[in-house]
């Protein structure tokens, strides 16, 4: 993969946070959760948030995203259209070799599909997560595709490909 397809999440946060953040109000309970996360993980997770919201706004059939907490972690749902599967973002547990993750519902085939499509582009945790470390160079185009597939999961395979 070319270096131009990758972005350091901290750099992406600086460059892209303003537009989506200012137009998408964060619910108070979600904002409180983000503020409890230590830096620099907070900045990395906020960048994932922006990627999810931007991808949703660019993807037909998704509609308005509901931002809430699930299991005490920021979660993104297609409650309006029911087009997709929930995405959560959070720090990983202390036993993990990674710092934070984008979590998907493990009863879906999303993570196994990502693994088949993108191979070693990402680190994975079973059928539930794509894993990252602070300062990782994130393959943004590929991660955006993972998010798009999750947000359109219930629209059928034709809409996701």
Describe this structure in words.
Helix content is 42%, strand content 20%. It has 161 residues and is an alpha+beta fold. The strands form two sheets. The protein has a six-stranded antiparallel sheet. Strands 1-8 form a two-stranded antiparallel sheet. Strand 4 and strand 5 (100-104) form a beta hairpin. Helix 3 packs across helix 5 (140-151) and helix 4 runs antiparallel to helix 5. The chain starts with 5 loop residues before the first strand and ends with a helix. The relative contact order is 0.18. Residues 1-23 have low confidence and may be disordered.
How would you describe this structure in keywords?
161 residues, alpha+beta, 42% helix, globular, disordered N terminus
Q: How would you concisely characterize the structure shown here?
A:
The chain has 161 residues and is of the alpha+beta class. It has helices at residues 9-23, 28-36, 41-58, 110-118, 140-151, 157-160; strands at residues 6-8, 66-70, 73-77, 87-91, 100-104, 123-125, 129-132, 137-139. It contains six helices and eight strands.
